[in-house]
Design a protein that fits this description.
The chain is built from 1 helix and 7 strands, in the order αβββββββ. The protein is mainly β. A hairpin with a 3-residue loop joins strand 1 and strand 2. It starts with 13 loop residues before the first helix and ends in a 16-residue tail after the last strand.
């Protein structure tokens, strides 16, 4: 099965590129790895990231930020005593997960905070102050 991708002459941001590649990831698969969905928004001071962690121990989730790219990875453990089930339908994803997304602003990764509330992981990262460009005058020697 192949996916048809809408042709876009110019990708305006990493977000557009992410959307383009989402068509290559099947909605449901039998693979053990999956990519969690994320919501990213910002205000004047912070960038906020939210993702669902239902059934995942927050203690076993690793979060890192490097070069303004957020990475979330972990594993959802199967806690069933019966391994051999005759499933009619199996849609709950279990296994390892990994998600890496570029953030919309430069951030101060050392001051990031995260909390898990009702199965939702909420990450807040302060924005870095914008670096203003400095005009440099050229001294001409004769």
């Amino acid at each position: 099965m192949s996916s048809i991708i809408k042709w876009t002459p110019f990708l305006e941001s990493f977000e557009d590129m992410d959307k383009m590649f989402e068509g290559f990831i099947p909605a449901r698969t039998d693979l053990t790895n999956y990519v969690p969905a994320v919501d990213i928004y910002q205000d004047e001071k912070n960038v906020y990231i939210e993702t669902q962690l239902a059934g995942i121990d927050p203690e076993k989730v690793d979060i890192s930020i490097e070069n303004d790219v957020l990475t979330i990875k972990g594993e959802s453990e199967k806690k069933s005593e019966v391994e051999d089930k005759n499933y009619y339908r199996k849609e709950i994803r279990r296994g390892s997960f990994y998600r890496s997304v570029p953030l919309p602003s430069h951030v101060i990764s050392e001051k990031a905070s995260a909390e898990a509330v009702n199965g939702i992981l909420k990450i807040a990262v302060p924005k870095a102050l914008e670096v203003k460009s400095k005009m440099i005058k050229i001294n001409i020697k004769k």
